[in-house]
Amino acid sequence: MNEVNREKIVSELKSIPALKGIVAYGGGDNITESAILLYHVAGGLSNQELEHVVHRLDDIEVPIHYKLREIDSVVHAISDCLDGKITIKYESGHPFGVVNSSYAAEIHYGRILWEAPDQLVTALKGKVSAQGEYPERLRQATIAYFMEEATLALENGHSAAMQGGIHYASGSFFQAACSWVQVIHALNRQLLLSEKGGVKRANQLPISPKQFRVRVNQVYRYFAANNPTLAYCEIDMLEQEMAVLVRTYAEA
Q1: Phi, psi at residue 164, to the nearest 5°?
Q2: How far apart are CA 22 and CA 110, in angstroms?
Q3: Using CA atoms, how far apart are residues 96 and 179, in angstroms rounded to an integer?
Q4: Can you give the pTM of this predicted structure?
Q5: Residues of the chain falling short of pLDDT 50
């Protein structure tokens, strides 16, 4: 998206009274300005109003990708995760769920294109960055929470796989792998936007199991070949390596 189009989009969107901020952010495995976040007051933004504004931007050749964020919910989510309270909720289009720390990542990585005079988005940026590169309470809570999540998922998946439940076992491994991605990012002090592209990005970080992405993909191949024995051989090795990484780096 070029600057001319971006300025026109911002000019039209900021006319909506309920908006508190317009932020460009990156999704997936990279941090680039690929979408727009619209922070708004709860109940103050109607779909009809937003569609009317977007319709006025039909002459822009680049499609507009936007996501809505209720500002009060974001404030609450960020306060929780900075206090070390991790939550995850189901949301359509997110098979792993949405972790509350992802809202902190959006604020941290996002570039403010416009905000209301009260500058709530700037205040949230300051709140996240005030505790350093990666808030320590959030880091420790993320590691503890998702290591336990991975363990529980793998235990349930293993018992199902040995009874022929390959589909369930694959889903359980997906949950475990996504949990490990959260832990790997926390160990490297990198906030994570979403699970999309997370395995690839985790594989590129210095503190990570060797060939993490290749091995995760190999597990899925073993499940597809109806070979849970080999799948869990690889899973067990990954689980052991994750435990070593946590002991070595988290305590330090």
Answers
A1: 90, 5
A2: 9
A3: 9
A4: 0.90
A5: 29-31
